[in-house]
């Protein structure tokens, strides 16, 4: 289950900000929230500069946790989710 909220604000014809928050809840690996922030500048000549920062959350896939009949690749039930920034 996941939910996402986003708010965009146009401060002037050239400046815009975007704030976002995503929350994911996994039965087998817990839950986490991932924030995001972006600032955009539009110069009026079809060029935009955008600075972004965010965090991401990746839960282990089922085949990474459990063996699925593959003698080469064994599952690991102790894997944790991975965060990136």
Structural category: mainly beta
Roughly what percent helix? under 10%
Strand count, sense and barrel status of the largest sheet are: 4 strands, antiparallel
The proportion of strand residues reads over 45%
Question: On the 0-100 scale, what is the average pLDDT?
Answer: 84
Please report the distance between the alpha carbons of the first and last residues.
22 Å
Poorly predicted spans: none
Detailed description of the structure:
With 85 residues, the chain is mainly beta. 5% of the residues lie in helices and 55% in strands. The protein is built from 1 helix and 6 strands. It has a 4-stranded antiparallel beta sheet, with no helix packed on it. A hairpin with a 5-residue loop joins β3 and β4. The protein is elongated.
What order do the helices and strands come in, and which of them pair?
Blueprint: E1 2-10, E2 15-26, E3 30-42, E4 48-54, E5 56-58, H1 62-65, E6 82-84
Antiparallel strand pairs: 1-2, 2-3, 3-4, 5-6
């Amino acid at each position: 289950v996941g939910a996402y909220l986003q708010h965009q604000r146009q401060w002037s014809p050239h400046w815009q900000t975007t704030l976002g928050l995503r929350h994911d809840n996994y039965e087998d690996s817990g839950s986490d929230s991932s924030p995001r922030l972006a600032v955009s500048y539009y110069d009026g000549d079809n060029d935009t500069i955008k600075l972004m920062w965010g965090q991401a959350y990746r839960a282990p896939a089922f085949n990474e946790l459990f063996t699925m009949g593959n003698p080469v690749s064994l599952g690991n039930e102790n894997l944790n989710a991975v965060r990136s920034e």
